[in-house]
Write a structure and sequence with these properties.
Layout: H1 7-23, H2 29-44, E1 47-48, E2 56-57, E3 64-69, H3 70-75, H4 81-85, E4 91-95, E5 101-105, E6 117-121, E7 124-125, E8 145-152, H5 156-159, E9 166-172, E10 177-184, E11 188-198, E12 204-215, E13 243-254, E14 257-268, E15 287-303, E16 306-327, E17 341-361, E18 365-387, E19 394-401, E20 410-423, E21 428-439, E22 443-455, E23 460-471, H6 475-479, E24 489-502, E25 505-517, E26 519-523, E27 529-533, E28 536-549, E29 553-565, E30 575-586, E31 589-598, E32 615-624, E33 633-640, E34 647-649, E35 660-663, E36 667-674
Parallel strand pairs: 6-9
Antiparallel strand pairs: 1-2, 3-8, 4-5, 6-7, 8-9, 10-11, 10-36, 11-12, 12-13, 13-14, 14-15, 15-16, 16-17, 17-18, 18-19, 18-20, 20-21, 21-22, 22-23, 23-24, 24-25, 25-28, 26-27, 28-29, 29-30, 30-31, 31-32, 32-33, 33-36, 34-35
């Protein structure tokens, strides 16, 4: 659809569709009011175990937790977890030269650094120790999601490694039946299916969830690249931004015993090229990332007020690159395109974890303790390139080169968590906790936390928290260290929160100060390698607003401000403004507009280019329930990048002067959902 019509024409077409679809969705007003009341109650009663591992309303836990449930994800027009994260306060999304996605939180983890966020799928960690992240979770479609929970700030006191700047937990749907199909204008298609079964008169239940999508991506032109040394490439030309994804989750429950199998695989083209040299025009997936997770767990009760849960899990993270372009023949002394240089590589990592926890309600004190052990092994790490290992000239056959990490690398750890929720009175709770992690290869680490939550009245909630988080060096970083060892990065954050809660208005305010120590950086001059770099201090403020107006309008917005003290990290956003507006056209028909505005950002030290420009992205969606008067049939129709903005992610110096363009036109999508 790109380039077929201007924004004004698209809006006119959309308004026409609104009139057509709105007329087909009439229903009794009392049903609509009931639906609206349920949505509102869901918003107020959202509960999470993410912050303390004990179930509490999200506004009552220490720190600030954002919860997006299935209804909100559908109403607000999000397609994937990636879309939903972009709407959260203090969260910025980015993409590297090969299309690898990552997020930063509160100005931490911007630009080209490894992930600073712990990623969970149904409560199980999926971060790969080799790279500190995974490329699959962000592609999960919202039809497969029950809710998204996100902690901004330190989470290591409970969740340990990688919960440095934030913590994401994606919880998938396990009840009911749902089927969906969809199309998008850039040769894209997707579908999902959920089937759940509960045996009558029994404690046996099971569910199967499947989702898949495929897209050729927008027709994006790379612009000029500017690689070091002037190496030639195929730029300017089209980028290879093809993507496909599959996710399958099987869940079985027999009483308190649960077994779950999770599989996700994300494939993509190499976009702007692994060496920031544009590959030839070939719409094929080149990079594949996958995870397979198996979990068995059981909750148990030992006595009144005393219970717990044990679990055993296995995780395999795989990263595979097939025919990955490294450079044109001329750059390596070759004679023609048949001498272009390509690499095939594979990295497979396996993780086993056993965990047991106990929870004891002693009246004023709610005590929690957990013991866990983790063992991580690199099962395969290999790389083959069509170069001669001695002359480095193009060769007619591929030869083996060192893999991404050494296959001898491994990591094991034992962790202990202790936590006390002291209910001083009905409205005042003091939470103190400590986590101890002992690693075989990098030593031990302590992650303390103390927090106070005061529910002064039903309208006014005050919070304060002091917590430490850490991110251990990834296996890639330890393998490429310039010194005998690298220390974990640490984040000490002090934050104050105030929440004003009324039925028609919710205001959440957060003021924080963070001290970042021992950041791990890559030294790109001889001798090259990873090492710890100095300390950075930053402060920030976040305002969240939820407002209902006359039963027709719902507003969800946020303003995030952050700034470094003295020296700053390149690429952080001084401000972010996000606004979601929902208007109810008819009882079961609504229109949602989401606008995300991100400030301009500074470049790395020594980069002569001007600041990375401010960006504004707008998405609009029409949602109709009981479409065509068919119970359970829903329709979602949306336009992404409504105003045809040229949207980019920042590129490093001496690569692409015009940065990484990822959208330069509006995209239309359509989805039909059926819930029997």
């Amino acid at each position: 659809m790109q380039g077929c019509m201007n924004p004004g024409t698209r809006i006119i077409h959309l308004i026409t569709l609104l009139a057509l679809f709105g007329g087909s969705c009439a229903r009794a007003q009392d049903v609509a009011e009931e639906d609206e009341l349920n949505q509102f109650l869901n918003l107020l009663e959202q509960q999470t175990t993410l912050a303390t591992r004990t179930r509490l309303n999200a506004d009552f836990v220490p720190g600030m937790v954002s919860v997006l449930n299935a209804g909100q994800l559908q109403r607000r027009g999000f397609r994937t977890v990636w879309d939903a994260l972009a709407s959260l306060p203090g969260v910025n999304t980015s993409m590297d030269e090969t299309g690898m996605r990552s997020i930063s939180v509160r100005g931490i983890g911007e630009l080209f650094e490894p992930s600073k966020v712990k990623l969970l799928l149904n409560g199980e960690s999926v971060n790969a120790s080799a790279s500190a992240t995974t490329g699959t979770l962000f592609d999960t479609p919202v039809e497969q999601v029950e809710r998204i929970e996100f902690i901004r700030g330190p989470g290591s006191a409970v969740h340990g490694e990688f919960a440095y700047a934030g913590l994401l937990n994606v919880i998938t749907r396990k009840k009911g039946k749902q089927y969906s199909i969809g199309l998008e204008s850039e040769a894209g298609a997707y579908f999902s299916a959920l089937y759940a079964y509960e045996k009558p008169g029994s404690d046996l239940s099971s569910s199967f969830s499947l989702a898949a999508n495929e897209s050729d991506g927008e027709d994006i032109k790379s612009g000029r690249d500017n690689s070091v040394g002037g190496n030639p490439s195929y730029a300017p030309g089209p980028i290879n931004n093809k993507r496909d994804f599959v996710s399958a989750i099987v869940d079985l429950n027999i009483g308190d015993l649960n077994a779950r199998l999770q599989l996700q695989q994300s494939n993509r083209g190499d976009h702007f090229g692994s060496s920031n040299l544009l590959p030839p025009d070939d719409k094929q997936t080149v990079i594949s990332e996958s995870l397979v997770s198996a979990v068995i767990s059981q909750a148990f009760t030992l006595d009144d007020g005393l219970g717990g849960e044990w679990s055993f899990s296995g995780l395999q993270n795989s990263s595979e690159k097939n025919h990955l372009f490294l450079g044109v023949a001329e750059a390596f002394g070759g004679l023609g395109t048949e001498d272009d240089v390509y690499a095939d590589s594979e990295l497979v990592e396996q993780r086993l974890e056993v965990r047991i926890n106990l929870q004891f309600d002693a009246g004023e004190h709610l005590l929690f303790a957990e013991l866990s052990a983790v063992d991580i092994d690199v099962d395969k790490s290999e790389q083959f390139i069509n170069l001669d290992p001695v002359t480095k000239l193009p060769a007619p056959t591929v030869n083996e080169f060192p893999g991404p990490v050494d296959e001898s690398q491994a990591r094991s750890s034992i962790s202990i968590v202790l936590q006390d929720e002291y209910r001083i009175d009905d409205r005042l709770t003091l939470t103190s906790g400590l986590r101890f992690d002992d690693y075989e290869d990098i030593g031990s680490n302590l992650s303390p936390r103390i927090a106070l939550v005061w529910r002064r009245t039903d309208k006014h909630i005050f919070k304060t928290q002091l917590a430490r988080a850490f991110r251990p060096p990834s296996l890639i970083e330890t393998g490429g260290s310039l010194k005998s060892s690298i220390d974990p990065e640490t984040n000490d954050t002090l934050e104050f929160g105030y929440i004003y809660h009324r039925p028609e208005l919710v205001l959440r305010n957060t003021l924080y100060y963070a001290q970042l120590d021992d950041l791990i950086v890559f030294q790109d001059f001889a001798p090259e390698g990873y090492l710890n770099s100095g300390s950075f201090d930053l402060w920030g403020y976040e305002l969240e607003v939820e407002k209902s107006i006359a039963n027709s309008w719902n507003l969800v917005g946020s303003l995030s401000l952050q700034d470094y003290i003295d020296e700053e990290l390149a690429g952080f956003s001084p401000w972010m403004l996000k606004l979601g507006t929902e208007y109810r056209l008819r009882p079961l028909t609504s229109l949602h507009l989401q606008i995300n505005a991100i400030s301009s950002r500074g470049r790395a030290t020594g980069d002569p280019r001007s600041d990375f420009e401010q960006s504004t992205r707008a998405n609009i969606m029409l949602r109709s329930q009981n479409f065509l008067d068919i119970d359970g049939l829903g329709l979602r129709l949306g336009i992404r990048n409504l105003f045809d903005e040229r949207l980019k992610h920042p590129a490093p110096e001496d690569t692409y002067p015009g940065d990484y363009l990822y959208s330069d036109g509006a995209m239309l999508w359509l989805q039909v959902i059926y819930q029997p």
